[in-house]
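Human: Respectfully, please carefully check these tokens:
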Amino acid sequence: MIFLVACFASISTALASPHYTDKQLDAFEARVGRIFWVVSVNDRTPAFLSAAAPNASTFRVPPNESFEITELVGRKNKNPYYKVKFASGKEGYILPEAFQEELNLTILTVDPQADEKKKAAAAGEDEKKRLEWIQAQPWSQAVKQAAIQRRPVPGMKTGEVNKILGKPTRVTKIQAPQRFGEEHWFYPDGSVVIFQNGLLIRIEPKEKKD
């Protein structure tokens, strides 16, 4: 690791040269097989070459596209290019010095959407469990279909509604004039689910603004 850091640190002193030492080339080649991600900074993404040649045409890829460095070409004559393959299947090239300049700016070593993907995966797993639970209930097909569409029916218990709709953001307990205890469950979409003695009596949709 110390060797790689020292080699990459020495790269900046040789960027103006078309040739590199064997140690620098070894450091470049250490990136082969690794995955990187493209991001946009000030509406700009890194430029890649269509061929391993200085006069090759350039192209850019959309933000959040990943790519793998598949090969370090041109090592024999010490005029290297990274050959890369994008998630889309497109291939391209980039000079190691250009790669180094963009690293941690428009080229990242971690997926910038990792957290969003993790949350989406967790949400997908929760939804799968919700649907499996609904199908396992001794309800009619019509009630199951309503539950799948997140429409609990009157008479359901609080635990059943919690399984169908998820946890509310807020719960308010109210003592009605008839001395029947009520619970009002508030949801992010503005709807209010009302229970009486632990059973669903009605759902008040989000109020429409004039």
In short: Residues 2-108 form one domain.
